[in-house]
Design brief:
By secondary structure, the protein is an alpha/beta fold. Helix content is about 30%, strand content about 30%. The strands form 2 sheets. The protein has a 6-stranded mixed sheet with strand order 6-7-8-3-9-10, sandwiched between helices. The chain has a 4-stranded antiparallel sheet with strand order 2-1-4-5, with helices on one face. The structure holds adenosine-5'-triphosphate and magnesium ion. Adenosine-5'-triphosphate binds next to strand 1, strand 2 and helix 1. One of its GO terms (molecular function) is ATP binding.
């Protein structure tokens, strides 16, 4: 499809641990189109984080084809990928992405600056995520769930085209996750982002346009009649 922002065909990726080689992804294909939100579920160790890191260029595939914004992977330099990660592809990592020596509001301003934006809506985002009171604190002075929400604010503030999110509500307690999931989703929809969301939160997954399951190295449509 021409309008796919991300197009992956037959991707494979393995890791070498000493003498052992484990193949995590093989024959994986995916299209992510503008404005579409896709949930990815799959057991621990199935390769979900590996997939996100292939799509944002942090690791290369062993084989297969990948195009982002219509550009083939083989034509992108490290510098191109870095530029894409700064400006167009936000990744919300599983273990947070805040700079420990900057306060929450400085983290936000920094991310906006990296993306080349002179103005940003970070304050409103913090309000929206109910963590306005953490703005002047450092990441180690706030809770895990607050850090996760601050990381969300950092990802949105760069005004990306694509959001890759690894368990965005993973370290939130049930009640906070229930509250943050719709906020996260509204922000994606309002901004018309394409989003690939690794999640086991049914609240998030059900709001997505499609749910895919990562199993035996490849993505398959999730049978929505099944429960989580
Ligand atoms: N840098 C690495 N070197 C070697 N093996 C790795 C590396 N990163 C991941 N793996 C292995 O690859 C497999 C997939 O890991 P990955 O982190 O992608 O899984 P995941 O689906 O994100 O799991 P989780 O739900 O626990 O976050 C696992 O078996 C993991 O141990
Ligand atoms: Mg993971």
């Amino acid at each position: 499809m021409d309008d796919a922002l991300i197009q992956a065909r037959n991707l494979s990726r393995s890791y070498r641990n000493g003498r052992e080689q484990i193949t995590v992804l093989h024959g994986l294909s995916l299209e992510l189109r503008q404005g579409e939100a896709v949930a990815v579920i799959g057991p621990s160790g199935s390769g979900k984080s590996t997939l996100l890191n292939l799509l944002n260029g942090l690791i290369p595939p062993d084989s297969g084809e990948l195009q982002v914004f219509g550009r083939r992977r083989s034509t992108l330099t490290e510098r191109d990928w870095a530029e894409l990660r700064r400006t167009r592809i936000a990744t919300l990592f599983q273990d947070g992405n805040l700079i420990p020596t900057l306060t929450v509001s400085r983290n936000i301003a920094f991310r906006a600056g990296l993306a080349g934006l002179s103005q940003h809506d970070g304050e409103a985002l913090l309000e929206h995520l109910a963590i306005a009171d953490t703005a002047h604190r450092y990441p180690d002075q706030i809770s895990g769930g607050q850090r996760q929400r601050a990381a969300l604010a950092c990802a949105f503030v760069m005004q990306p085209d694509v959001m890759l999110a690894d368990e965005p509500t993973g370290s939130l307690d049930y009640a906070t996750a229930q509250r943050v999931a719709p906020l996260f989703f509204d922000a994606i929809r309002e901004r018309g982002l394409a989003a690939l969301i690794v999640t086991h939160n049914p609240e998030l997954a059900r709001r997505c346009d499609r749910i895919l399951e990562l199993r035996q190295g490849a993505l398959r449509p999730w049978d929505s009649a099944r429960s989580f």
